[in-house]
Design a protein that fits this description.
Order of helices and strands: EHEHEHHEHEHHEHEEHEHEHEHEEHHH
Number of strands: 13
Helix content: 25-40%
Number of helices: 15
Oligomer: single chain
Distance between the termini: 24 Å
Strand order of the largest sheet: 3-2-1-4-5-6-7
Largest sheet: 7 strands, parallel
Shape: globular
Radius of gyration: 22 Å
Length: 407
């Protein structure tokens, strides 16, 4: 049974400004559930059967039934025009990212200007890298500002670029963010009354980079278990064989930040033919020829979102070797399907080491290989981990709602 939080007359009314459907609109949905959401301002909002979403799966995801009774202001045609103009002018990379962020902020401000003078306090929420102009406008009006930090900030870029596992990744594009990107982000942090991060890892990274600790609040991501996963039970064979191998699932962008360099090294170190690796997601590196020829490695690109559950169901263990992540939502997705997780320490603490999976002490080929070989040799351990695996209530939408309101 869901819980609805009732706001008092003195409670802040919240305005959410966000590009895209980040986290399935979890922040505005949580605030709407709490009764304090005033409006959502976004770039595109379209019901699945509207003309604007026809033939465009990406736009079809720019809607959530949980917000159907909420006030939503979207740019729609102006957003589409911006994207078409960017393509025509062949803008790409950081150029189009920064221009899109600035364009959206100006649109959001145009919507905020239309508001009548509020009778109650107002809080403006915006995600990092697209908040500076919005927060400037909000502070001029005496409104409270809350920054949703989507990653661990500048230090993450340095960690990835200096990681030994990134060396030899082929033609992968590792161009760093321009300095203006980080300068504008620091202005966002200064303008924010609160900076919300999703994990201790992110908090520690921001503090190490000079963000005032007293501004930071740790609020985990919200996750809702798929209905199809409710009641799902996993079973393992008595032993793994060439005909029934241990199926190791990697799901996400195949790029250096996600730790695929170390994973590639681990695959080479594991000689056992009864371990199979499923690589699901867009490939953003040059795949080494030996791994392309390795029959144990299966590559799955361009998998529709509605087919992802199939891989969670059929895998035996999930590998998440990220070099740095603000949270790592796929950990919860895997857990919702009772799938044990081998996870990095450089993200949210979701896995209980030795209980629901393995927490890697370091993201390296030897460490990953050792964990997988040990699990391969003990199907009973995987069965026990699966039986203990569940998504904690701390990651529920109600928990997110309570944390935001209690700011």
């Amino acid at each position: 049974m869901s819980t609805t939080f009732v706001s008092t007359p003195a409670a802040h009314r919240w305005i959410c400004c966000q590009i895209g459907a980040r986290e399935h609109y979890s922040v505005p949905r949580a605030l709407q559930r709490s009764g304090v959401l005033d409006e959502l301002i976004t770039d595109v909002w379209a019901t699945p059967d509207s003309w604007i979403s026809l033939g465009n799966p990406g736009i079809r995801n720019r809607f959530h039934a949980g917000l159907i009774t909420s006030e939503v202001r979207a740019a729609n045609l102006r957003s589409i025009f911006f994207e078409l103009k960017s393509r025509a002018r062949r803008r790409n990379g950081w150029e189009v990212i920064t221009q899109r962020n600035e364009w959206f902020q100006k649109f959001a401000i145009s919507q905020l200007r239309r508001r009548a003078r509020p009778r109650v306090p107002v809080t403006v929420f915006a995600y990092s890298y697209a908040a500076r102009l919005i927060f400037n406008f909000a502070r001029e009006r005496g409104w409270r500002t809350v920054l949703g930090q989507i990653d661990p900030g500048p230090l993450e870029q340095r960690i990835v670029s200096h990681s030994p596992s990134v060396a030899g990744m082929g033609t992968v594009d590792l161009r760093p963010s321009p300095q203006t990107y980080w300068d504008q982000w620091r202005s966002e942090v200064e303008l924010a009354d609160y900076v919300i991060v999703n994990s201790d890892w992110s908090r520690n990274m921001l503090v190490a980079d000079g963000v005032a600790p007293e501004k930071i609040r740790i609020i985990p991501l919200a996750f809702e278990r798929p209905e199809a996963a409710i009641g799902f039970k996993r079973s393992y064979p008595e032993r793994f064989t060439a005909k029934r191998p241990l199926r190791v699932l990697f799901l996400g962008q195949v790029n250096p930040r996600k730790g695929v360099g170390a994973l590639f090294d681990a695959i080479r170190r594991v000689s056992e033919p009864s371990i199979e690796f499923w690589m699901v997601g867009p490939i953003q590196v040059t795949i080494p020829s030996d791994l392309r020829k390795d029959n144990r490695v299966k590559w799955f690109q361009n998998v529709p979102r509605d087919r992802v559950a199939q891989y969670y169901r059929e895998a035996d263990v999930f590998i998440f070797p990220t070099l740095s992540d603000g949270f790592g939502l796929t950990q919860l997705e895997a857990q919702s399907w009772k799938l044990p997780v081998v996870a990095s320490r450089h993200c949210a603490s979701v896995v209980r080491d030795g209980s629901t999976g393995v927490v890697l002490q370091d993201v390296s080929g030897p460490s990953i290989a050792d964990a997988l070989v040990r699990l391969h040799g003990s199907p009973d351990t995987l069965q026990r981990m699966s039986s203990l695996t569940e998504v904690s209530d701390e990651f529920s939408l109600n928990s997110l709602a309570s944390s935001l309101v209690n700011l």
